Known about the structure:
Number of strands: 18
CATH class of the largest domain: Alpha Beta
Organism: Desemzia incerta
CATH superfamily of the largest domain: L-asparaginase, N-terminal domain
Mean pLDDT: 97
Helix content: 25-40%
Low-confidence stretches: none
Distance between the termini: 40 Å
Keywords: Hydrolase
Pfam families: Asparaginase, Asparaginase_C
Radius of gyration: 20 Å
Shape: elongated
Number of helices: 9
Strand order of the largest sheet: 4-1-5-7-8-9-12-13
GO biological process, one term: amino acid metabolic process
Bound molecules: asparagine
Strand content: 25-35%
Amino acid sequence: MKRILMIGTGGTIASALTADGLEPQMASSDILHYIPNISKFCEVSTLEVCNIDSTNMSPDIWTLLTETIRDNYDQYDGFVVTHGTDTMAYTASALSYMIQNSPKPIVITGSQKPINMEISDSKTNLYDSFLYASSDKASGVQIVFNGKVILGTRARKTHSKSFKAFSSINYPYIAIIQDNHLIQYIQQPAAAQPEFYPTINPKVGLFKLTPGAEAEILDFMLSKKDAIIIESYGVGGIPSFPEYGFYDVIKKWTKRGKIIVMTTQVPNEGSDMEIYKVGNKLKNKVSVLEAYDMTTESVVCKLMWALGRESDPDKVKTLFYQTIANDILF
Ligand SMILES: NC(=O)C[C@H](N)C(=O)O
């Protein structure tokens, strides 16, 4: 019998309807009562690190989650974290960098409808998550949702209401679960022991380009943060007319040691800045990094992890381009 630790954080799966809308209220032990059949294959202990709508998720809670899993690691065979869907992809990315090469599965799940509603995806998602966390083939960090197992570094919320809330970006599903049967397509590489990195640097920001966007705003953001991700268009570039001022702002702050990563707002296939002149100059004359096939969620969390370990831009660059949990393969 597998021993699984269920860690509650809140979200719709733990929510009840109040006069002001849905609010997380249920403890993990209450949620567990809805899926008695899992006792056939696992024994579950429960705890909560918080009980929040995941809109309130923070890097401090990621540290707490990492420490909780680290402190309980030896006592359990796997972990199920219940979480709101809104920032679940960020937490899946964060845990992929903060807990690396885990031989034991760390599964994150949640739902689009509360567990006590007549029509809800909660019970299936939870049951599937415990099934996956109890599998000998599972390892590392992943989201289990709507019958799909998505690598933590590749998940993105792509539907705000329907049960198929998550997609796997630029990477296949690693497994599917159909009628309680697990079909494992890809096994994650794991080490004998995981590495835990509970300390991260949260001073990472995101600047989304829109026609008319002002370099002044980017300048302000770079004055406040240690790293900025620019979510650009297409395969990547920056408005290049000198009067726009973007090139000068980027040059000024990279010279001062700030990290700038270019990524794309296009959901699939990633960046390739060298294709167009608007990106090429930036890539080759200024030391701007590039996200390639990584998700924006992973870029945010990878920078927090890398900046938590190093401050020298060359060392951050080396960590950034290192493939971790299959996050960058381009
Ligand atoms: N489906 C959900 O869980 C959404 C909720 N607002 C949350 O992220 O906590």
